[in-house]
Specification:
heterodimer; A: Rossmann fold; 9 helices; globular; B: mainly alpha
């Protein structure tokens, strides 16, 4: 009986652990821990997708995860105005501004550089998928050092792995989903999920919790 | 029999500890409401008028006050920007000062904005009236 219980708990424990498992190698936080940034400037995200709303969609979703992670995040709408007021009209131009200049104008400790690799709804034969892929790096504006980098995505396919109703039903579902997806700006919702996964803290290999977070200075999630 | 009961309890504890390891404790630091959406609308430059946004944000601030919740970083700064858009520079200044009080980390950037509100902007507009 005793042995049976031990075996069961081992198997159960293994199953639960397996459920949480993600890639192994832990991030090297040496530079991040030494830099201790408190305020973050989120730069306008570079857009590699054909969807023009990708930059505002992803940019507007950056503040919440980073602020809940314990950082002061400079107001993106005002940063946008300041950049435009200085003749910087594209994300590419903004992301090439020298660090000392950014530090002088915005006074932030570090800057967050985001790239959107995918944003939007694509129609496939039997289904449509709304998907947002993002990657980011955090650079210390005081010395130009890389503090952190990572990537994440969110997709409608995570929820609707299965559909019913035969091939015609599937085709109709796919078409309807794309129409709804486009009309209601579904990508905006998935941008929120992707950004939470990318920038939320504490997460395994994610951004370290900042000084305003109760998790600040505590060990990061092991997996 | 008592040995087995103990074993079950142990196994249950072990499972609980492991599960707790996956769970993220989440009491939000700030009351967000529709603030991310407001920022999105502002960045898109379409749709909602500044006056309408000011009303929404003031209702949000009132709700946070009543609940004893904190307003997110940038909230007061963005509200200040909206006030400026409708020509109320005094209210904009108040909001940017309030952002500094709530978040001292904002000081350098708010000072930059306040300086433009007071000085260089007016001299510039005198130099080249457009």
């Amino acid at each position: 009986m005793k042995r049976f219980i031990w075996l069961t708990s081992l198997v159960l424990g293994g199953a639960v652990l397996g459920g949480c498992a993600t890639p192994p190698a832990p991030y090297d936080y040496t530079a991040f821990q030494r830099a201790k940034p408190a305020s973050l400037l989120v730069m306008p995200p570079l857009n590699e997708s054909p969807e023009v709303k990708a930059t505002p969609g992803v940019w507007s979703h950056a503040t919440r995860p980073l602020a809940e992670g314990g950082y002061y995040v400079l107001p993106v709408t005002l940063v946008d105005e300041t950049l435009r007021g200085n003749g910087v009209l594209t994300a590419a131009e903004a992301q090439s501004i020298p660090y000392p200049k950014l530090r002088e104008v915005f006074g932030a400790d570090a800057a967050v550089y985001i790239k959107v690799n995918r944003y939007g709804t694509s129609y496939k034969l039997i289904d449509s998928e709304t998907r947002v892929d993002v990657e980011a790096k955090i650079i210390d504006l005081r010395d130009g050092q890389l503090l952190w980098s990572g990537s994440a995505f969110a997709s409608s396919a995570e929820q609707s792995q299965q559909a019913q109703g035969g091939l015609v039903g599937l085709l109709v579902t796919a078409l309807v989903k794309q129409i709804i997806g486009t009309a209601s700006d579904a990508s905006y919702q998935f941008a929120g999920t992707a950004q939470d996964r990318l920038l939320g803290a504490p997460r395994f290999n994610g951004v370290l919790p900042g000084p305003r977070s109760p998790a600040h200075g505590k060990p990061m999630p092991a997996r | 029999m008592s040995c087995c009961a103990r074993g079950v309890r142990l196994a249950a504890w072990a499972a609980l500890v492991v599960l707790a390891g996956c769970a993220q404790p989440s009491k939000p630091l700030y009351m967000w409401e529709s603030f991310p959406r407001q920022q999105y609308d502002a960045l898109l430059r379409e749709g909602v008028s500044p006056l309408e946004q000011i009303r929404t944000m003031e209702a949000h601030a009132e709700k946070a006050r009543a609940a004893g919740a904190e307003l997110p970083p940038g909230f007061r700064a963005h509200l200040g920007k909206l006030h400026l858009e409708v020509g109320n520079a005094a209210a904009a200044r108040d909001m940017w000062m309030a952002e500094k009080v709530a978040f001292p980390e904002a000081t350098p950037y708010m000072d930059h904005l306040l300086k433009r509100l007071d000085g260089p902007v007016t001299t510039e507009s005198k130099k080249n009236p457009t």
